[in-house]
Amino acid sequence: MDFLIYFAVILLVPLWANRRVKNTYKKYSKIATTANMTGAEVARRILEDNNIYDVTVKPGRGFLSDHYNPASKEIVLSPDNYHKMSVAGAAVAAHEVGHAIQHAEGYAFLKFRSALAPVASLGSNLSIFLIIGGALLQLSGLYLVGILFFATAVLFQFVTLPVEFDASSRAMNQMVSSGIIRNEEEPHAKKVLNAAALTYVAAALIALLELLRFILMFMGMNGDD
After folding, report:
1. Where are the transmembrane segments (predicted)?
2. Cα-flanking dihedrals φ and ψ of residue 76, to 5°?
């Protein structure tokens, strides 16, 4: 019964967070900002305000596929956010510019996350095979290596949190100071950014729960020995 509750939690929490993001985004994507600027225009305005001229803004594909690529110095906005005028689009665009500003300033957590990314990716891909192999073969050493690999992926999730929260804080400050949003629009933009942040919090918590489960299983394996 406990396992059923556990798996329900790790399945339902991310679904709830994603649904909240989509509903919040859908609501505020229908409300235009006072400045009547597209997401692309918002991004370019904030970049110019911060004297960042080596970052390009381009349209991407897919729904809420927005991201900043530090390697190519590109802000990629999903089609609706790039072309349309809305509070939601402005908030998302400003958030991605927040990452570009972090990059330009050498923000410590962003640098750490970038350095950790290759190791975390490897750990995420290999850990489950090592853990399953260790469990099936009753090789506690192999299982432990899998846990250590998985721990790097969990660490990456938690390092991501301050990066995302800081980018959202920068986004709000930039939108207000540049006049992109006015007083009555600030709560709307905050709701969009907070809903998006929930997905990162949910991912980090689920990853931590999985790590704890693997550790408990490892302890049980050694206890049986």
Report:
1. 115-137, 142-163, 192-212
2. -105, 120
- Domain coordinates of the chain in residue numbers? 2-32+87-92+106-224
Q: Tell me: the pLDDT tens digits for 142-200? A: 999 999 999 999 999 999 999 999 999 999 999 999 999 988 899 999 999 999 999 99
Quick check: 225 pLDDT over 60? no
Of the candidates 41, 48, 74, 96, the residue annotated as catalytic is 96
CA atoms within 13 A on the CB side of 9: 13
Residue 8, pLDDT score: 74
The three-state secondary structure class of 12 is helix
Tokens of 22: 């989509």
SS3 159: helix
Tokens of 129: 């095979």
pLDDT, mean over the chain? 92
Could you please report the per-residue DSSP string of 47-116? HHHTT--S-EEEE--STT--EEETTTTEEEE-HHHHHSB-HHHHHHHHHHHHHHHHHHHT-HHHHHHHHH
Whole-number Å distance between alpha carbons of 95 and 174 = 10
Q: 38 forms bridges with which residues in the sheet?
A: 85
Confidence class for position 224, pLDDT limits 50, 70, 90: low
For the question of residue 105 being annotated catalytic, the response is: no
Nearest Cα to Cα of residue 177 among 110, 97, 102 = 97
Give the sheet arrangement for strand 74-77, strand by strand: 56-59, 74-77, 67-69
